[in-house]
Amino acid sequence: MRLSYQWLCEYVDVRDISPRALAERLTAAGLEVEALTPRNRGVSGVVVGHVLTCEPHPNGDRLKVCTVDAGAGEPLTIVCGAPNVRAGQRVPTALPGATLPGGPIKRVTIRGVESNGMLCSAEELGLEVKLLPKDLTEGLFVLPEDTPVGEDIVKLLQLDDVILEIGLTPNRSDCLSMRGLAYEVGALYDRPVRFSPPSEPSVPEPSPVRVSIETERCARYDAQVVSGLIPRPSPLWMQMRLLAMGIRPINLMVDVTNYVMLEWGQPLHAFDFEQVREGHIIVRQAGADERLVTLDGQERVLNDDTIVIADPERAIGIAGVMGGENSEVRSSTRRVVIESATFDAASVRRTGQRLGLRSEAQQRFEKGVDPVAVRAALVRAAQLLCDLGGGRREGGVVSVTRGEAAVARRLEFSPERCNRLLGTDIPPSEMRAVFRRLGFSVQERDAGAWEVDIPTRRPDIALEADLAEEIARLIGYGAIPSTLPFGATTVGVRTPSQRLRRRTREVLTGLGMTEVFTYALTHPSSVDALGLAADSPYRQMIPLRMPMSEERSVLRTHLLPSLAQVAQYNLARDVAGGQIFEIARVYWPRRLPLDAQPCERTQWAGLWFGTTDADVWNRARRYDFYDAKGAVEVWLEAFGWLDGAEFRPAASPWLHPGRAAEVWLSGMRIGSFGELHPKTAASLELEGAVYAEFDLDLVVERLSDRWLVEPLPRHPAARRDLAVVVHRDVMAQDLLRVAEEAVHADGERLLEDIRVFDVYTGPGVPEDKKSVAIRLTFRSKERTLTDEEVDRLVQRVLSVWTARFAAALRG
Amino acid sequence: MDVGALETTILDIEREALGALEQVADRAALEEWRVRYLGKKSPLSQVMRQLGSVAAEERPRVGEAVNRCRDRLQTAWETAKEALSERLLNERLASERVDVTLPGRRRERGALHPLVRVMQEVEDIFLGMGFTIAEGPEVETDEYNFEKLNLPKDHPARDMQDTFYLTDALLLRTHTSPMQVRTMEAMRPRVPVKVIVPGRVYRRDEDDATHSHAFNQIEGLVVDEGIRMSDLKGVLEQFARAMFGPDQAVRLRPSFFPFTEPSAEVDVRCINCGGAGCRVCKDTGWIEILGAGMVHPHVLDWAGYDHRRYSGFAFGMGVERIAMLKYGIEDIRHLYQNDLRLLRQFARPV
User: Fold this and answer.
1) 10 Å Cβ neighbour count for A165?
2) Rounded to whole angstroms, how far apart are CA atoms A71 and A48?
3) Which residue among A468, A477, A544 places its CB closest to the CB of B253?
4) Between chains, do A546 and B126 touch, taking CB under 8 Å as contact?
5) Is residue B102 part of a domain?
6) A619 interfacial to chain B (CB closer than 8 Å)
7) ipTM of the complex
8) Do the bridges between strand A449-454 and strand A554-555 make them parallel or antiparallel, or are there none, so unpaired?
9) Topology of domain A718-809, per CATH?
10) Could B229 and A600 be called an inter-chain contact, meaning their C-beta atoms sit closer than 8 Å?
């Protein structure tokens, strides 16, 4: 909402307060002033000139030489290039020494003729040309014929005004009018507000208009017919005021309705009364599929949720949103009926949203208008039309209501409760003063129990808490001290899931991985690279109803496409490679179309792409399966899960079938990792990249926060290194597992540790075989093991390997 | 045998041995010298073997001369050995050099994402103040995202949060505030409720330097008997000091949120200029970091806490905004671009 400082001063005298100070005060009171714009963009020394003569320039085809009476001294000779300049016009005349937004004006000689100033267009004066009709912006800005010659243009066009652009919060619908703003400013500065309702003359003749309300959604409809109007533009001062407030001047009738709306906050609409069949206005719900061409020339399809203004034959307007073309007020219109009504806010809002319209009227209706203003605004508009347009009232105001009339609200209020809520110690007398400034009247029922009457212009005040806010707002939030809550001491805790994620982050960043953060909304085709089956659940992506772009139109079901995008972005920017991870949710619907909240699973996903950093000690190499596996193992170990984890070949379609593993933990598949499938890699342009994903929701139950020390061993260990040749497909994990089973077959747990420390293929080992070097560590808690004992155990291991895997001890 | 001749021989041996010792250059030569002059077959041993031919009364004299000579040779050998060790060590040290300016065998540390850093920092501060951390669904119902927060259907205040709808009833949450209601419903009738809720939220905004269709919020909620607006200010002041520095102050300004009354915008002293006025704070000395207020009586009542008995405050802050202010990131999109050259800067402070 814009606020004209000059206009405001007509209602509440704040001339001693600068616009800037006013802006600060309003902002501090919750009416945030977002911009402070002087209307004058650099105009000075420009006056109203009267073009006395206008002759063609002797040396220029399109130029004219004019003599202009600027109200002082001899007429001036001014060369003008505007095509619309004529003798007899009143035009803004920049005298030598004047300044315009475009620069200073000097006496110059144009093609041999001395020009003593410049005749100005609207644009040259810095007016809001986008809002002005074409005939005022093309060429000179021609002023009305009765404009006094010599008058300062700054004053005439109200350029000495400052506009405060206020970002209103949606509750302050009262401030969508000069009236509301005047009351607000009056309350803030404790100054009287001069804003009186217009007096309504009594008109004995009956009104020619009949009004029927046929819908619950119109509580009141007032109408006034004004006839005998002379078609003319609205006066310059009104046009300038509308312009300052950001509203397009059109013609007197429309301008008056807009002007009064700005004044009172009550939207008005003028219909050409000759177009209202039978002089009968009917407020009703539209029929299904009813159509109406609105003022903007568009045919609108209505539905039964829409309130329309109609005559007995057809709709003539969409209530609260936009009038119909069929009843539009034109320059030829002599007789109008002005509407001032109250429509159901929610219905107006829905209609506007459905039609994609957002008129000034609609914005006010949907936030609620003041019932008191309905009639006052109508009377005021009729008055202005009579005064400025030569019209006369034809009958009085026709007022029809439906349902109960709105009454002023009365709220209970306790100064003590108010102080308790705010944590303040404001004396009741000060609170009483605040209510007086706001124009709320207070009755003290009992000591400390007040009743506060709220004027209808403040629909936002509905609860005692709202009154508390008014107290704090006017006294200033600065009066609220800083305290800390009383009450029981609490201990803050993280949930297991949060602890799991935090430790995961510590582990992965500790391994040198960089965390990324990507959007959850993605492109529907982002999963295409994953090689999914047609019925894969990963294809079940929840779509937005009205996405802003296809790129962000569905919720992701998989994290690989997001990480891949990060990798691509970085590879394109001279980054050789990296290890990245994200902890985020994927969104799996139970079914589509969506009928319930989906399953939001938290995963961690890692991507190793490109090459490692080369340095003095390490050559750059491609990341591979074992980089991921190392990270996965360290991660599992950080939670004590590594011993219980089982790695099996994985069959995820986005992973290389021979270079991928899935991890099982106590019967659950908690995740998978591996090199990207060549097809996936090719379509993501991430050849050889390695991807891992783990479901954190599955493992959160197994989170352990216990650390317990095992006593250090008292007896020495015996180590044996064995190298065995086995078929290439034999998995290391199987060798280790059967060895452990063999050693522990008689119940004594003597194998303390077993691990692979080398794998060799190449000369000396047959083509289809590999040599696996394994270190076994034996130890007893009770005694020192003898060599014979250890040798027996080793023999047992070897024989089981031979039996199960045809293993041969390597020479 | 003539004693005099033997003594001369001993002296000659000594002279020869000491002369030879000076020529010794390495451990092998030294060992050779030791075997030669101090071993069983050394000339001194041969002198001793000739002792039998010396008159009995002369033998002690000669024996003593031999022993003295051997002692001297032994001492000389030890000295030479030590000198040799010393020399060899010096030679070794002189030859063993590394370029200390080459990089070490490094394992680069990774880095947390700046948004996560901010969230963790905020979480830690509020944990320290006794808040619990809760999280909720991002796909919310209209009921929890709006209606139970005093934002009925067709209410103009819904324009404050342009919404991504999935169905008539389901949407992407526009704020973390639905968790106010979910938390209260889960907790009732227990007090105090003290919780913060970090999480992703979504608005139908075009992405530009300061807007993002997806961002993160941290919601806070305290409900108990006797909670005052001054408590809100006090708690946020503590937070601001922990987050932005001990000299921080907060300023409340009236505002409007449908689910709080009274409502406030909360400013902290500009963390760029400390309040003197600069480009970041548009010369006001203050920057807005969150919205807050006293929980609206309707919201309390609907969630099962009678507003006549209980009161509470709530606040919500934008994580991106804090990250941008704190880390000097000028474009919100940079937080989602994941340029590793930017993210890796978070492996070390400046």
Assistant:
1) 15
2) 8
3) A477
4) no
5) no
6) no
7) 0.88
8) unpaired
9) Alpha-Beta Plaits (3.30.70)
10) no
